[in-house]
Amino acid sequence: MHNLTAIFQEMNLELLESYGQNYTYPEEFDGILDSTNNTLAASFNRRGSLLATGCNDGRIVIWDFLTRRSAKVLLAHTSSICSVSWNRKGNKLVTAGTDHQVAIWNVLTSECEHSFRFPGPVSAAYFNPRNDKQVLVCPLKQPPLIVETNGERFALPCVEDGDTSVCAAFDRRGRCVYAGNSKGKVFIICAKKFKLLKAFKIGNSSQGVKQIKFARKGGCFLVNSVDRVIRVYDSEQIVSDYSIPEGEAPCVSTVEPIQRLQDLVNRTLWKTCVFSGDGMFVCAGSAKQHQIYIWEKATETKAVSQTQLVKILEGTRGEQLLDVVWHPVRPIVVSVSNGMISVWSRNQVENWSAFAPEFTELDENVEYDEKESEFDEEDEDKSLPPDEAELFQDIEIDVEKVEKIEAFFSSDEEDFDDGCIYIPVAPDIDDPEDNPALPIKDCTEVDLTKKKSTKRKKSSKIGRPKKTR
Fold it and tell me: Which of 105, 197, 201, 379 has a Cα-to-Cα distance from 162 of 20 to 30 A?
């Protein structure tokens, strides 16, 4: 059933992209995932079929996002989980918690493959997008480091004297690590040689970096800073030249972003920011209340001055927003607030005329004159042109070959193993008698087996001699 659902989802995805309906943004509330645990963090796998959420009691709940039901629960940490991240194949999870632990989990077997302990709490941990044997770890009040599955740890050269906090993230290809400190500086470090390649400022020293996020498509990344401004940069322009000779300190200069996003009216402080799956929109969640802002990203055809705020999603008043994630291929946003998981999507209007040009919607009954040969197996009266007749010839369809869906793959990939896409889920039946698949039991029928057994018991008691003392 899961395989059939996946096939239809991919078919619908191709149709939506061909009609230009996929590159949109969510507009309305679409329900809550029924979770009994207080959720703190969330993350989609690469296809968007599974959603992993970390809870305050140390559990990881993996959701089948097509059915929106819980597929698996992992007992991961002894305290709250701060970060959840998938590898590229979708068969592993890396989690970080306040119990000073970072763990790598096998999703199918529910086993912990590797566990690393640190001197203090860890705020985030991410897989290398192209190498799941390498994990980027960001401890609190300590420099970030790269941990390999064989146990080796490499500290990144991105901390200066007086730094209080440093955030970091891999780029889209996993070649470099971008780290930002509390003084408004961003460092670009090679993920293989652990060498500092370049450094630049986003503004003055008071604009500390809180978060760095890369778009899934394209070369843009955003920087969430303390001054309540979201800056969007083009990584190709910044890393075009690695002009740092060996043994010399980098020349730090200020780099102007291609776009600045902020709330000029309310001066909102942003809790978290993400790109949309197609990289066309920027989504930011407020740190004070359950509000999600969506902007359109500047492109070559649209200037920065023309981009504007397109939507504000309003949650329940009084709720504190904890995390926001965007679906990789759909206009769906999942927000976490006060431990609850909310889903925001776009109301899809059925327009059958887009797929069948002769289809018309009727408001009332209309008398229809049936043609004489309309429901015949072969229309003898109809004549097709030669070119159109060739389209109706028998076509051999290969049902074994699986074609690559461009929406799920990058431009530099040819063959790729999808890994874990769906988790088999057994139906939950509280009472077997309530199973609708079972035949209905007639209460008037007498169970003869029970009568026979009771008679045997009685007869055995009667024929048994009494014990004498």
Answer: 197
